[in-house]
Every structure is written in structure tokens, then in C-alpha cells.
Predict the structure.
Amino acid sequence: MSKEIFGHINQISMELRLPTFRTNLESILIKATKAKTPYEQLILELLQAELETRLVNRKKAQLRNAGFPQLKHLQDLVRTELPTDAMDKLPVLETLDFITAGQNVILGGSPGTGKTHIAIGLGIKACHAGHTVLFTTVSRLLTQIRESHSSRTLRSLELKFEKYDLVICDEFGYISFDKPGAEMLFNHLSLRTGIKSTIITSNLAFDKWNDVFGNDTVLTAALLDRLTHKAHLVNMNGKSFRMKETKKLQQAKK
């Protein structure tokens, strides 16, 4: 291939934003010439390399955009130390079929038993599978809703929230809501009901959720009904990982 044609190909690949194509062009051309590779095979190899790079970059971007506070993978879990119900249900959840079916997952139980780790691990796996994911705490989400309501951009936030394949709402029950806040959160979470998947983590049993919603029994019942319909309910009551680790450290010092 002449230098002039090679230069034109480089220029066009820059215009089309094909960096991997441009990077691999010379080496693949040399290899193809020696092996007398057909032109169609040469083109296929260049395009495949570009596609693979884009898929990798897309997954990296999805992980960044998800907003995970830490990258906690499912393979890092000590499964034998999880609550029994979690051990039983995790193999089903990690197939990610619940996302395809638009089902919710409620991880409820004692502090320190792996709820957030499981939620993040499922979220990371969903990103690798090509799903769009958002991680947020319930308090942060409510703050965003209130700010959007004040600035009259609530509908824009709602449209964005509806489109995520998976939303993880961590730390439900850490703070209580006033009536307007409870209604805003209810309306926001209801947007995804039966359409998209939401994972909720909570230290509270369902009979305590009423306290969080300012003792509004009607609103609490309505939210529970929507969130738990056809949902995967995982009992996370058990001994705290953090307490176990603290005891191990104390024993090691003796």
C-alpha cells in the first residue's frame, strides 16, 4: 500500500473516530501481506479489534457512571458466612434474570451481613452484561428529588431515572422522611414498578417501614405493595461480618 493511500486511511479513521482501527492498521497489513490474507478477512480483523475496544470502554464507562462507592465483586464474598437465605438465593440473582423480568430485589436484615456488597456485586455484574446501572443512597436520592423539584427539573430527573435497567437504593431506613419527602420518594420509586428493576437494602423489617414514612400507614402499605410485587425478598438477618473481623483481630493480638 502506498504512503498516500495509507495516509488517507489514517485521516478517514480519525474523522470516523476509529482509534483502534488506526493503531492496528499497519501491523495487521504487514501480517496480512505475509500470510496473503484476503481483503475481506483483513477488513474483518480491523473492525473486530475496533468493536472489542469499544465494548471494553463502554463497560468501563458504565461502571464509572453507575456511581459505586467501592467496587465490591460477588466473587469476593465469603458465601459460607452469608445468611442462609442469601446463600440459597444468590445463585438465582446472579443470573441477572430479575433485570430482564423487571423484578425488584429487597435485601433486608441485620447490619454488616453483606447487603451492600451483594447489591454492588450484582450491579457490577449487570454493567459487564451491558445493562445501565445507578447506585445511590435513599437520602441522596431524596435530596436530588427535592433539588430538582425546586429548580423545576424534576421531570428530567424522572425520565433519566426511569431508563436505568437497574437502580440500587442503599441504606433505606437510615433516616425518616417528612410527609412531602415520603410522597416524593414514593412517586419516584413508583415510576419503575413492573418495568425496571430496583434493589433496596434496609436494616429495617417491613413492619418498621411505617416509622420511616412518618407513620403514614397508607403510603407505606402502597410502597411496600409496589416494591415487593413479584420481588425477590432476601432475609439478611445474621451475624455481622464486621463484628466477626473485630473479634478475629482482638484474638490475634492476644
